[in-house]
Amino acid sequence: MFKVISNRIIAPGVRRMEILAPKIAKKARAGQFVVIRVDEKGERIPLTLVDWDPEKGSITLVFQEVGVTTKKLGRIREGEYILDVTGPLGNPTEIKKYGVVVGVGGGVGNACLLPVMKEFKRAGNYIVSMIGARTSELIILEDELKEVSDEIYIATDDGSRGYKGFVTDLLKKYLEEKVPDLVYAVGPTIMLKVVSSITRPYNVKTIVSLNPIMVDGTGMCGACRVIVNGKLRFACIDGPEFDGHKVDFDSLINRIKMYKREEELALSLFEKRGNKDYGI
Amino acid sequence: MVSKRAIPMRKLSMDKRLTTFEEVALGYTEEEALEEAKRCLKCKLMPCSKSCPLNIEIPKFVKCIERREYEKGLNIILRANPFPAITGRVCPQEVLCQKECTLRKLGDPLAIGRLERFLGDYQIENNIMNLDVPEKVRGSIAVVGSGPAGLMGAVELRKLGYEVTIFEALHEVGGVMVYGIPEFRLPRRVLWFYVDYVKKLGVRIEVDVVVGRTYTIDELLKEYDAVLLATGAGTPKFLGIPGEELNGVYSANEFLIRINLMKAYRFPEYDTPIKLGKKVAVIGGGNTAMDVSRIALRLGAEEVIVLYRRTEAEMPARREEIENAKEEGVKFMFLTQPVALIGDEKGWVKKIRCIRMRLGEPDASGRRRPIPIPGSEFEIEVDNVIIAIGAEVNKLIQRTAPNLKVDKKGHVIVDKYGRTSIERVYAAGDVVTGAATVIEALAAAKTVAHTIHRDLSK
């Protein structure tokens, strides 16, 4: 049982949750994730660690309320509990001095960008952050990202903030001017695919943080398998970060959609019947 | 005159077998157990006992059954094996104790597994637990993993006077017995009884702790006098053929975890989904292949076909499980090896391209090696493929413990007493041997527990 310290809305449908998990807080490193299970009937889902405080013994997650699990998470109030939180899982980001690091984030991925850019900054890199969202009010953690960035660029699909268009357009323009030493991207898989195809001609090292379907998150099931450099790899224990130029994004995008219909069915039943006993 | 035939075990009715996860083998009634126990010849040399990895004194407990001294018989088993209702169900007795049974010269061997289960079930019904542990605390041990080896190691060490903490990565206790073996072979109430027993002995169990991530071995060594690695072999193998990334393709482990651990067969009451079509192909010939095939039928698949590259004679699955699968309607295609999985335009698996095999000379395993017949490729249409070709050791711990010596396959290297290359770190079970049986893991863990005790007593 893991106590929820706070659970607040930071943008429409997006929440920031702080959970008491001292063991994980002590060990967490940038780029890692946890697997959570909200309740007895819950699914295990991975969520990237956004922040952690070893002294307070807490970890922070940011999630969008899109499916049954994240909606259940959204309903948990301060002082209530999550049944299982396991981690920190996955390999931490390899932090070193590259020179100029461009971080590209999309949607909730912007929150995942923060801890990684923080560490890259600490290692002496020049940080350029590019964050994108559908609309201005979905731009999250902007202030925190600003703090660790030497330059920050914002894109919204509707043009309500910053550049009108995709965050990947910003990257494209940037690369036309100068070539950074590293591009780090986290966000929707389609965005990661576009980022990787934009950087490929420039031969700039591109790390992508993948978020496939996982069950145990410890290397036992293989649900998160992804083709990297022609070989099957497990995102949970071999990743979640891979060389974006070697990832087969098309099969990954396909795998993420595997349970789309089931997810929609579960969600509609959940919404209809509320949190308890919404099953058959 | 001793009957040549063993008393058969009653099974669940077929309609229930195909629609529920209730246990299939129903166990002996008292009368049946008494009748079967009578068949035992009580051989002085106890060949059965000698071929039991835990050396349970089989003729002695059978004699107790005959005399209706059930608790006495149970205690004879418990001296060697704390989990008779589990091993009585999942042990491959036909290649262990029953293989050496003298009765085989006349007909069926004594149904030792069924008799062991009879006493194990008697134990659970009557809630019999021996909770004696020494008062004096000799030291503290961290056990990594709560499967058969972990639970056995914990029980033995606790009885030797150690404080024991088990760390489990998943949210439930039992390892392969909870995520792997389906409920129709090992009902969860049986497992929970023994987990409860382990807890009542005073063993602490922490779930949601991934050693290698949440704690490293070095950190555990600072807090505990010794560490017992019992992490099993939980990483699924894939075939290494094109198309394994397609939707509709499951590793047996993922399929089993979704069903057994996450209760996906009760989706959407439970949140974890499973997606199964009408025709399911299962690749492999072991117990796991039988388990997933039988689950697929229970989930409503119309046709389940096991593809195996050798013949039925070479299948590593227990005969009993092959029979159960056949009775339930699982079909088999022998001498068939998949070479590619082919998807439709939506990226869902649609066909398996296979090649026919023939058997050549025996290989390292002593079984005849399957050889592809050139030009014999053919395709079968499927809606799902479940790959059940075995599991290997999870490499998570060794990645964070570079001084832990492992072999090419990732198995932890130990001396014959269970000591690893790191002082005060021991290992037992599948993490040492590769995927094997529950009973072998129990036996190994028992040996290693005593090694730890000897080493710490120096």
Topology at a glance:
The complex is a heterodimer of chains A (280) and B (458).
Chain A: E1 2-11, E2 14-20, H1 22-27, E3 33-37, E4 45-53, E5 58-64, H2 68-75, E6 81-82, E7 84-89, E8 100-106, H3 109-122, E9 126-133, H4 142-148, E10 151-156, E11 163-164, H5 167-177, E12 182-186, H6 189-199, E13 206-209, E14 225-228, E15 231-234, H7 235-238, E16 241-243, H8 249-256, H9 260-273
Parallel strand pairs in A: 8-9, 8-12, 9-10, 10-11, 12-13
Antiparallel strand pairs in A: 1-2, 1-6, 2-5, 3-4, 3-7, 4-5, 13-16, 14-15
Helix pairs in contact in A: 3-4, 5-6, 6-8
Chain B: H1 14-19, H2 30-37, H3 47-50, H4 58-66, H5 70-80, H6 84-90, H7 112-125, E1 139-144, H8 148-159, E2 162-167, H9 176-179, H10 188-200, E3 204-206, H11 217-223, E4 226-229, E5 235-236, E6 249-251, H12 252-261, E7 279-283, H13 287-298, E8 303-307, H14 319-328, E9 331-333, E10 336-343, E11 349-362, E12 368-372, E13 378-381, E14 384-387, E15 391-392, H15 396-400, E16 425-427, H16 430-433, H17 438-457
Helix pairs in contact in B: 2-4, 4-5, 4-7, 5-7, 6-7, 8-17, 12-13, 13-14
Question: If you had to describe this structure to a student in words, what would you say it looks like?
Answer:
- The complex is a heterodimer of chains A (280) and B (458).
- With 280 residues, chain A is of the alpha/beta class.
- In chain A, 30% of the residues lie in helices and 32% in strands.
- In chain A, a hairpin with a 2-residue loop joins strand 14 (225-228) and strand 15 (231-234).
- In chain A, helix 3 (109-122) packs parallel to helix 4, helix 5 (167-177) packs parallel to helix 6 (189-199) and helix 6 (189-199) packs antiparallel against helix 8.
- The longest helix of chain A has 14 residues, at 109-122.
- The model of chain A has no long low-confidence stretch (mean pLDDT 94).
- Chain B has 458 residues and is α/β, with parallel strands linked by helices.
- Chain B contains 17 helices and 16 strands.
- In chain B, the strands form 4 sheets. In chain B, strands 3-2-1-4-16 form a 5-stranded parallel sheet, with helices on both faces.
- The longest helix of chain B has 20 residues, at 438-457.
- Chain B is globular.
- The termini of chain B are far apart.
